[in-house]
Write a structure and sequence with these properties.
The chain is an alpha+beta fold. It has seven helices and seven strands, in the order αααβββαββαβαβα.
């Protein structure tokens, strides 16, 4: 059976178009993307309006979840969001996110980009974090590019992605009190006059 993913991205030639495909996935128009083999999960549905607003500010969200109490587990779930954005956007929002005491923020450079002296490349080690180690050991050096998702056969999409920065933002506390999606939105809107806007 042919892989349906390349066909989904066959008309994507720009970041604007890439954002639009992802926004349509969030709206339920597509059942999969290059990073998800299933539709948006039920727990994520309440976040969709905010995620779409982030897309209109040029933040391509890939993974997100609310902070909530899991019915099958006495331990709460941390709020979490992962997104891509242009370097110009990254320079506007990084410090605000990094200095927010409610969240852990990590930034990785584009595929193969190494470490940026101005924005140290780090990826959060969620396994250590979940095990309760909240010392500096839950940061580790990133090799670059290991969390990007490639669209086989559509190299131009990979080329678009190469020029982007990737962020992970994780709530420091379990439960619904900290909403990472809203925190990122508020940071973006703090710089709304300087952000490039996108039709999604």
């Amino acid at each position: 059976m042919d892989d349906p993913i390349p066909a989904l991205y066959s008309d994507v030639h720009s970041y604007q178009e890439l954002l639009h495909v992802n926004a349509d996935f969030l709206r339920g128009k597509h059942a999969f993307t290059c990073y998800s083999v299933a539709p948006v999960q039920e727990e994520t549905q309440p976040l969709v309006p905010t995620l779409l607003r982030l897309h209109s500010y040029g933040l391509y969200t890939m993974i997100s979840q609310p902070g909530t109490k899991m019915p099958q587990d006495p331990q709460n779930q941390r709020s979490y969001i992962e997104f891509l954005c242009p370097e110009t956007t990254a320079k506007l929002i990084f410090e605000d996110l990094y200095n927010d005491s409610r969240v852990y923020t990590c930034r990785q450079l584009p595929r193969g980009g190494g470490v940026d002296e101005n924005f140290p490349g780090r990826k959060l080690n969620l396994t250590q974090l979940e095990n309760g180690d909240e010392s500096n050991n839950w940061w580790r050096d990133s090799l670059g590019g290991d969390i990007f998702y490639i669209v086989p056969g559509v190299e131009r999409v990979d080329d678009i992605i190469r020029g982007l920065a990737v962020y992970s933002v994780v709530a420091r506390e379990y439960g619904p009190e900290t909403d990472c999606t809203t925190i990122v939105l508020h940071v973006a809107e703090k710089h709304i006059e300087q952000l490039e806007k996108y039709e999604v």
